[in-house]
Specification:
This protein has about 150 residues and is α/β, with parallel strands linked by helices. The chain is built from three helices and three strands. The protein has one domain. The termini are far apart.
């Protein structure tokens, strides 16, 4: 049925819960501590290991799971986007390595992969009728004076 369905807009959720509040306490176990806007624990990836302690195989699997799911969704949904101003929007949380941003290492890496996929698709689709964009929920906006003080 999906192959015959005409779509105008797709919003792809990237392991972000913008309404979520981080759990109190210290990050020790990815199944107990939930950082705000980080739902990568739901991908069944190993996020509580330190990066330098992970095997390359474990890292490869954990760091690419979210972007692989998004690529698969895009491959299946984009052919059905019809009409002028059709859009495909990736919604992710923003960890981006900023001080005070609590996020698992795998949450950080997976978000960057999705941002990269969005940028690559935006480039590939630049001459098509499909508008591709990403929205980074929780992306801090600073006044110029705040940036200088950091």
């Amino acid at each position: 049925a999906l192959k015959r369905t005409q779509l105008h807009h797709v919003v792809a959720h990237g392991a972000v819960r913008w309404w979520a509040r981080p759990t109190p306490g210290k990050f020790e176990n990815m199944y107990e501590f939930k950082a705000g806007c980080d739902e990568t624990y739901s991908l069944n990836i190993n996020g509580n290991d330190r990066l330098l302690n992970m095997s390359i195989e474990e890292f490869t699997t954990s760091s690419s799971r979210l972007v692989a799911l998004h690529l698969s969704a895009a491959q299946n949904l984009m052919p059905n986007l019809k009409g002028p101003n059709s859009s495909y929007t990736f919604v992710t949380g923003d960890g981006s390595g900023k001080p005070g941003g609590e996020r698992t290492a795998m949450g950080e890496i997976n978000s960057h992969h999705v941002w990269g996929l969005s940028a690559a698709l935006r480039h590939e689709l630049r001459d098509s009728a499909i508008i591709c964009r990403d929205i980074r929920v929780g992306f801090p906006v600073h006044e110029k004076s705040e940036l200088v003080s950091e």
